[in-house]
Amino acid sequence: MKREFALVLETYDNNVAKVELQRSASCDGCTICNSGKPVVLRAFNNINANKGDSVVIEVEELKRGTNFFVYVIPLICLIAGYFIGEYISKLSNINHNLGPIFAFIVFFIYVILGLRKLKKDNKIIANIICKNQVIENFNEQ
């Protein structure tokens, strides 16, 4: 797990807090941090941190299979959609190539289903491990 500094934005009754990651040296090569938008996520709040507290959180590393779903599956959808459209245009005696249209449709369906799954999952990937009083000790580790 990776440790990061964060600021508590909101706390909820079920020991969950909304936190904003503070930019650090490890953000330099990260495309998410360089987008200009603050990175906000939900974290388990087992230490009862309050709104406005500076905290240290542990963030789960992404699983290796994630890149496959982000890069390879969409490419497969585009290629499969192209050949499906090509096949249908030959069967229906249409002179226009429907491959690009079907490629877009299959890719669009994949994106819509993926976004629905992300919204439904919305899982918590971080734990608050200490408040700002302990941050000085964290830097020494």
UniProtKB/TrEMBL annotation:
Pfam families: RseC_MucC. Signal peptide: none annotated. The chain crosses the membrane at residues 68-85, 97-115. Keywords: Membrane, Transmembrane, Transmembrane helix. It comes from the Bacteria. This is Positive regulator of sigma E, RseC/MucC. It comes from Brachyspira suanatina. The lineage of its organism: Bacteria, Pseudomonadati, Spirochaetota, Spirochaetia, Brachyspirales.
